[in-house]
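## retry 2 of 3
previous attempt timed out at serialization; input unchanged, resubmitting
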Amino acid sequence: MVREEALLPTYNRAPITIVAGEGCELIDDRGRRYLDCIAGIAVCVLGHAHPAIADAVAQQARKLVHASNLYYHEPSGSLARELVSRAGMHGAFFCNSGTEANEAAIKLARKSAYRRGETQRNAILACTGSFHGRTLGALAATANDRYQEGFGPLPAGFTFVPFNDVAALEEAIDEKVAALIVEPVQGESGVHVADTQFLAAARRLCDERGALLIFDEIQCGMGRTGSLFAFEQFGVRPDLVTLAKALANGLPIGALLANERAAGGFAPGDHGSTFGGSPIPCAAALAHLRVRDALDLDARVRARSAQIFGALARLAAVNPGVLGTPRGLGLLIGVPVIEPNQAQAIAAAARERGLLIGTAAGNTLRFAPPLIISEEEIDRAASLLQAAVGPR
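## retry succeeded, writing output
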């Protein structure tokens, strides 16, 4: 097993070394296979080593790896057209990660107000339970002291409103708010779904009071909820939507999509990224979109979601002192653990049995499997989880 002391200790890594992947399985350096139900934290929606992704990467690498954003290139332009068309947006900005996409959204919201002459409209409103990334701006919009501790002073101008509280939202959005940023499904807080009424109120209030509405779909977007964009599940269209994680099925890319009103906030020189929108990750993202269309992944997610929710609900029923009722949307699911501080232990026990799952909010099991997961694999995951929650 590889233990790399040269890496900074920013992660509590599991004691296994992954060397390969195939479909919904990962393989370690001893040849042991694991059923992957976290998918690189909601990233590998087409599973591991998908041939269409591998071919797209290889073909693009033979033609053009990098040209910078001083010039146009075909993969970036094609991906931008695909995404804005599918989202009903106007323009796209590419970067390398989710936190960078949220940074871009925050900057665009403020610059849009500035260009309209509203120089005092610069507050960013976020929700309790939110997680928007690790850079300082995105961290300032993240309502979690644990992530912020020791990194102050954080950028100013960020305030919070209780998630799913319409009355509090009515009070919070005023003439100083440039944007409200919200996750349609909060992942890190334990997988909590936004109320449709809350998001509809957010849309109405932002329209009435001159603020922009940002949906952070970094974890819940790209098909994970049963539609390409999570906002389609709620019938509420934001002004800005941020994407990353699953967009290129494992290659580093982030995207900010903006409607026509918001897009005018940026002018040349206002923002940039050396590697953002590079040809290889864009080619992979285009391949991902082609595959998801061919497979009708949305219908597949809806069917597998019903199956896994049913399986997890039955596990909760037969383990009433251990597991709570599953919650979430599509194939982003959280299962609360009743016993205090036992989620990590259950995840470790599952890993020992060949099942990889995540945790969130301290004591929630998180399931975000590849969207191609089969009926048989879900049955297998449920069986392995039942073994893990037994006597330990």
